[in-house]
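As the next step, I selected for study one protein, both as residues and as discrete backbone shape codes, as given directly below:
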Amino acid sequence: MNPESFFSKDIKPALQNDPPGEWMPAIPADCIRLSSGYPDPGLVPVEELKEAVVKLLEEEKDLPLHYLGSKKVEDLKVFIQCLMVERFMLIQSDEVLVTSGACQAIDLIARVLIDEETVVAVESPTYMEALEIFQNYTSHFISVEVDENGLRTDRLEEELSERKRKGLKLPKVLYTIPTFQNPTGTTMTEERRAHVMKLAYEYDFLVIEDDAYGMVYFDQGIGSLKSMKRGKDPRVLYVGSLSKIVAPGMRIGWVAAEKEFIQALSWFKKDLDHPFSQASMSSIVENTDLDSHFITLRKVYREKCHLLLSELKKHLPDSVSWYVPEGGYFVWLKVPGVDTSNMLDQAAAEGVSYVPGKYFFLNQEDGLEYLRLSFSYANESDISEGVKRLGKVIRASVSGV
């Protein structure tokens, strides 16, 4: 028997792509992990989680462990609605779907909206796991450049206008990370945000707004695209996550959209919930001073980012450039004339890791000179030492030694 002969015709093309997570470099155990887009270990509320779970089980016994779960699952949705008010959105209960992480949210949206003929517009570069998801459903993409001010909406408009003039199919959706983008750390300007929304109405496409890092700002919060909608016109499907601000292993994400979209997404989500995880998260937020947690979180990441930027100036050659983020986890470097994928083995041998830039591009050749660093996971001394080691490798690669 050939198992592949039973695969659906829609699945077979997707299996021709690289396996999920192929971009993740093999990292020796003793490496300083400037590649890891994980929260600072000290900011993951381990003790709060332990106490919250004990309290939950003591109060509700077996209830959170059943299919239907605890009533706190609904309380979690209320918390998410409150959290979105901080992002300048007023969302009704039937406009929110809690998901098992942001990736499930993106996958559900793709499943409902995208088929093999759908054109999807994406940023270049963009979040690699989103690319993997979209490539499971379609092979038709428009790739639009990102610069220090976020998505180049002028280039997007040029592409849309040209496709319309030539009678080519226009995109149904645009996937964007407008705030503290992964991997570049850039933030889309207010002017470009308004331009995106104008183009969405003019060319009749939807916007998938991935806001995984929106709460991880250093100094001032930034409004979402979702908050810019006109009246009841449902242009933006907003994807949020608690992974970067509470704990990624809890797998709590959500979609906020018009109720008709939420109903369709719910149809395919069915029982793919984690009631215990959701109830536990609800118990954490109920019993934790999250305002203080967020203040600490932003302070820690702001200081780590400033340290990383300072060390980059100290140890990297003048030819290397980077963007200065206002939040999030990442700094994006350009190393002219160097294939950062080939350089990774040398970096690992020196004891430091990063993610090569090519994995964030549809056309990987466009990303050969780039790399992504994360300041979120490593401690301060490792950040300083890691950049020093990386600087040594880059200087050798630039000079050709």
Observations:
- The chain has a mean pLDDT of 92.
- The longest strand covers residues 140-147.
- Residues 144 and 155 are 7 Å apart (CA to CA).
- The first helix runs from residue 11 to 14.
